[in-house]
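RECORD TYPE: protein structure
NAME: Sulfurtransferase TusA family protein
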Amino acid sequence: MTEVTQPALTIDALGKKCPIPIIMLAEQINYVPLNAVVAVLADDPAAYNDVPAWCRLKSHRHVGSYELPGGGWAIHVRRNY
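PREDICTED:
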């Protein structure tokens, strides 16, 4: 069981194709405090893999991806720096 932290920021990228969700995340992650969680709401299947891959590339932490009731995911990212 992983911890589910209340996100400090939620980015609504539902209906947007990759790479838009990642661009939105990259633009906004520095607005949250260190170790805070950003939730990216996305329904493009590419985002499910691309956001965690971006986290590895940028050394942020992919906390988890949670299915949304209406389709898509809330992809939680913890800011590491």
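COMMENT: The helical segments are 20-28, 45-58.
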